[in-house]
Amino acid sequence: MPGQHALAASAILGAVTTGQHPRPRSHRARRGRALLVLLALGAVALIVAVAVVVVPLLLPPGPRPLFQLPVACGETWQLGTYPGHDDYDVDLFPLEGEAWGRPVLASYGGTVTVAGVNGSIGGRTPENPDGPRGRGGGYWVKIDHGGRWETQYLHLLEPPMVEVGQRVEQGQQIGKLGSTGNSGAPHLHYEQRRGWEKVETYFDGAPSGITHDDREYTVKQTSNNCSG
Questions:
Q1: Does domain 75-223 have CATH number 2.70.70.10?
Q2: Scanning 34, 150, 190, 228, which has the fewest C-beta atoms within 10 Å of its C-beta?
Q3: What would the pLDDT profile of 25-72 be if each residue is shown by its tens digit?
């Protein structure tokens, strides 16, 4: 009979359809456990990465390195500051000879962490010393000396002579003195930092005496940066 045949076909089709094998629960459970393991490993890796960066920053600074003036051995330079310059910032000017292009040396051995442009370069050059000022520090270099100590060198004449990640030795030339950035004349803006804070600059184990910028102040020092 037609109706009975239709019912039989429907029953067979239903049996075939419902007879498809679903994925075993054990397979889904394994996938869930694998996903949890991956998430846990990712969380551990993130914690380790954060610890590698943060923990050293929380440790107390190490002893002060024996920083030297960042200029050639035996040369005498004027170190100074002025109102509004910011505490502990030091500007260095040579007392003899041409300022433009003088070698800027690493005060102490370390690893370069910045070598590029701070702000904008501007247009002051030896050929056009009264050109337009730039912004910030112009061409600059930052060196990590370990123990959470670092030095900064700003207003360089040209792109730095070192690269990020490069190891430099005390007395090694890292750039040339210039007037890029927000600078009125060729000089070197120099800073020493301990952890997150700037501190008074020390050269050859003695304090420079340049601390606060409440008044104009200058001193003269002779470089003992002779190991290079």
A1: yes
A2: 34
A3: 677 778 888 888 888 888 888 776 665 555 555 678 899 999 999 999
Domain boundaries, the chain: 75-223
How far is residue 66's CA from residue 69's CA, in Å, rounded to a whole number? 10
- Is a pLDDT exceeding 60 seen at residue 101? yes
Asked if 70 contacts 104 with a C-beta cutoff of 8 angstroms, the reply is yes
Residue located via tokens 């694998």: 34
Pairing of the two strands 90-94 and 76-81: antiparallel
Write out pLDDT tens, residues 22-31.
Answer: 555 677 778 8
Structure tokens at 59: 């440790």
**Which tokens belong to 33?**
């456990």
Q: What's the Cα-to-Cα distance from 149 to each of 66, 142, 192, 213, rounded to whole Å?
A: 11, 11, 7, 22
| Cα diameter, the chain | 120
Q: Give me the amino acid identity at 92.
A: L
Q: What distance in Å separates the CA atoms of residue 70 and residue 192, rounded to the nearest whole number?
A: 11
Give the CA dihedral 70, 173, 141, 221, nearest 10 degrees.
10
- Taking alpha carbons only, the member of 91, 201, 76, 84 closest to residue 137 is 91
Percent of the chain as helix, strand, coil, to the nearest 5: 20, 30, 45
End-to-end Cα, the chain, rounded Å: 108
Rg (CA), the chain: 32
